[in-house]
UniProtKB/TrEMBL annotation, chain A:
<comment type="function">
    <text>Guanine nucleotide-binding proteins (G proteins) are involved as a modulator or transducer in various transmembrane signaling systems. The beta and gamma chains are required for the GTPase activity, for replacement of GDP by GTP, and for G protein-effector interaction.</text>
</comment>
<keyword id="KW-0807">Transducer</keyword>
<dbReference type="InterPro" id="IPR001632">
    <property type="entry name" value="WD40_G-protein_beta-like"/>
</dbReference>
<dbReference type="InterPro" id="IPR020472">
    <property type="entry name" value="WD40_PAC1"/>
</dbReference>
<dbReference type="InterPro" id="IPR015943">
    <property type="entry name" value="WD40/YVTN_repeat-like_dom_sf"/>
</dbReference>
<protein>
    <submittedName>
        <fullName>Guanine nucleotide-binding protein subunit beta</fullName>
    </submittedName>
</protein>
<dbReference type="InterPro" id="IPR001680">
    <property type="entry name" value="WD40_rpt"/>
</dbReference>
<feature type="repeat" description="WD">
    <location>
        <begin position="244"/>
        <end position="285"/>
    </location>
</feature>
<feature type="repeat" description="WD">
    <location>
        <begin position="152"/>
        <end position="194"/>
    </location>
</feature>
From TrEMBL, chain B:
<feature type="region of interest" description="Disordered">
    <location>
        <begin position="1"/>
        <end position="30"/>
    </location>
</feature>
<dbReference type="InterPro" id="IPR055305">
    <property type="entry name" value="GG3-like"/>
</dbReference>
<feature type="domain" description="G protein gamma">
    <location>
        <begin position="32"/>
        <end position="101"/>
    </location>
</feature>
<protein>
    <submittedName>
        <fullName>Guanine nucleotide-binding protein subunit gamma 3</fullName>
    </submittedName>
</protein>
<dbReference type="InterPro" id="IPR015898">
    <property type="entry name" value="G-protein_gamma-like_dom"/>
</dbReference>
<feature type="compositionally biased region" description="Pro residues">
    <location>
        <begin position="12"/>
        <end position="22"/>
    </location>
</feature>
Length: 377, 205
């Protein structure tokens, strides 16, 4: 076949793909008989009500000298690791605000960090296209720096996001600007599986975020600049299980819903969405109307333990607390006392769900906890 | 190139050789790969279209979401307010002293509390003792995130071992780095040792 004939074949296939995508979109619309908010209202649900002192900033973690880009809690104890433009990882005791480790990175351009399930190691990645692992119990070198215990190299683009596989200190998943996600065996430093890429079906632009299902660690979601989120099964790297369309801009952040059957996403289109992984339906859109044309982008999201609250950080410093059932904003942490002065770049909930940590371009992290009243048992 | 002259028996002159254009192998492979990827995508989309015939509508998933959410407790969601008389005094006392009525401090309640602003100093980590700086009873105010502690009163006799500073009930210090010289006036206190710790002070780096 000549190049010209191949180009024609390619064009014809592209047209068929677009036509099929449109048919899929129309068919899905017919199945969207309601959304979560309409259903919840029909059941008489009332919105969550927060008083001014119900969710308060009870700690400000100061120490970074540059923008905070990423943070992660330990699965068990109250420690946080954060990554910053200043080229360091800091490990904090969230209760006391003390720093237990300050790790100077070989490559200052870090974008993501994660705590291992045991809390013994941290991982980070960034513009060096590698994922570096540090054992927190290692001896420091003569300069007082913690040595890198393992380097995971193989990506052909920046590492935008990383997460350890739950309950496995030896495996983690990275997302990359090379349009792939990779499952790594940390013990050997080798890639176990590559999801997407040049010769496999997958994302068609940079992958920005990854979230592993806490109920079934074989499944994970990725979010990409191609405006889609994709569900992957780690046993099948050749193609995504499902692709979720709907967003109209880069999908910057994805996070599984606590029940493991749904996930949330946040995008440059200013919206968060809730998708069902089994059916592919978009169950809800979380979109705050803005007077001006430019809606701030969603940078990071997290669900509360019950899933009733969706925390969403935005580029304008807002941190909305959404009532996920009624799709209403019930609180804006960005307008509370002691809030951040700049963009919220990352956020995450502690393992037991009693505290939220936000990280910001103002170089601080803040811990938010419930300061109100509860039913006494 | 000049025309070649031939006599009558000579074969007709051939056109002058032309330089050959470079082979399009790289472009061909790329185009073939792209076409194959799209054709594969067509197969996946066809599969998905067929699967929609048997997928339930969104309302079923919405119901599942609502049931899950309403059936689970959430530490961050306010519920029914119930204040005991004895707590109201502490709430008023701490609120009056703290100059910041957004902070709630009460002794002996099972709430997760925030530290009053005026007690925001290291000495107030000592549970139960008045702050040496401001004299206000130190609040048992750290949100204790351990699942063991969630409903326990911080620093009561049944304190959990995530309290700071460590109580007698707590495991021994496992910090291996307390060779203890201060690096700079802003010391990092190692929470497990109660000593000035020897890792570099972050402010000086």
């Amino acid at each position: 076949m000549s190049v010209a004939e191949l180009k024609e074949r390619h064009m014809a296939a592209a047209e068929t793909v677009n036509s099929l995508k449109e048919r899929l979109k129309q068919k899905r619309l017919l199945l969207l008989d309601t959304d979560v908010a309409r259903y919840a209202r029909s059941q008489g649900q009332t919105r969550v009500s927060f008083g001014l002192t119900d969710l308060v900033c009870c700690r400000t973690l100061q120490g970074h000298t540059g923008k905070v880009y990423s943070m992660d809690w330990t699965p068990e104890k109250n420690r946080i690791v954060s990554a910053s433009q200043d080229g360091r990882l800091i490990v904090w005791n969230a209760l006391t605000s003390q720093k237990t480790h300050a790790i100077k990175l070989p490559c200052a351009w870090v974008m993501t960090c994660a705590f291992s399930p045991s809390g013994q190691s941290v991982a980070c990645g960034g513009l060096d296209s590698m994922c570096s692992i540090f054992n927190l119990n290692s001896q420091t070198d003569k300069d007082g720096n913690l040595p890198v215990s393992r380097v995971l190299s193989g990506h052909k683009g920046y590492v935008s996001s990383c997460q350890y596989v739950p309950d496995e200190d030896t495996h983690l998943i990275t997302a990359s600007g090379d349009q792939t996600c990779v499952l790594w065996d940390i013990t050997t430093g080798l890639r176990t599986s590559v999801f997407g890429g040049e010769f496999q079906s997958g994302h068609t632009a940079d992958v920005l975020s990854v979230s592993i299902n806490g109920s079934n660690s074989r499944m994970f979601i990725s979010g990409s600049c191609d405006s889609t989120a994709r569900l992957w099964d780690t046993r099948v790297a050749s193609r995504a299980v499902r692709t979720f369309h709907g967003h109209e801009g880069d999908v910057n952040t994805v996070k599984f819903f606590p029940d493991g059957h749904r996930f949330g996403s946040g995008s440059d289109d200013g919206t968060c969405r809730l998708f069902d992984i089994r059916t592919g339906h978009q169950l809800q859109e979380y979109n705050q109307q803005h007077d001006d044309n430019e809606a701030p982008h969603v940078t990071s999201i997290a669900f509360s333990t019950s899933g009733r609250l969706l925390f969403a950080g935005y580029t304008n410093g807002d941190c909305y607390v959404w009532d996920t059932l009624l799709a209403e904003v019930v609180l804006n942490l960005g307008k509370l006392q002691n809030s951040h002065d700049s963009r919220i770049s990352c956020l995450g909930l502690s393992a037991d769900g009693s505290a939220l940590c936000t990280g910001s371009w103002d170089s601080n992290l803040k811990i938010w906890a419930f300061g109100g009243h509860r039913r006494v048992h | 190139m000049s025309d070649l002259k031939t006599n009558g028996s000579a074969p007709p002159s051939l056109p002058p050789p032309q330089p050959r254009s470079p082979p399009h192998l790289h472009g061909k492979r790329r185009e073939l790969s792209r076409a194959q990827m799209l054709e594969r995508e067509i197969g996946f989309l066809d599969e998905e279209l067929k699967s929609l015939e048997s997928i339930p509508p969104a309302s079923r998933s919405c119901k599942e979401v609502a049931e899950f959410v309403t059936g689970n407790v959430d530490p961050l969601i306010p519920t029914i307010k119930k204040t005991r008389k004895s707590w109201r005094f502490w709430k008023w006392f701490c609120g009056a002293c703290c100059f910041d009525f957004s902070c709630i401090c009460c002794r002996g309640c099972s709430c997760n509390l925030s530290m009053p602003r005026c007690c925001d100093c290291m000495t107030c980590n000592s549970c139960g003792n008045p702050c040496r700086n401001c004299g206000i009873p130190a609040c048992q105010c750290f949100p204790c995130c351990s699942s063991k502690c969630f409903k326990k009163w911080k620093c009561s006799l049944n304190c959990c071992c995530c309290c700071v500073p460590k109580r007698p009930c707590c495991p021994p210090c496992s910090c291996t780095r307390c060779t203890c010289y201060p690096k700079c006036p802003n010391l990092n206190m190692c929470s497990c040792c109660n000593k000035s710790c020897c890792f570099p002070c972050y402010y000086c780096m």
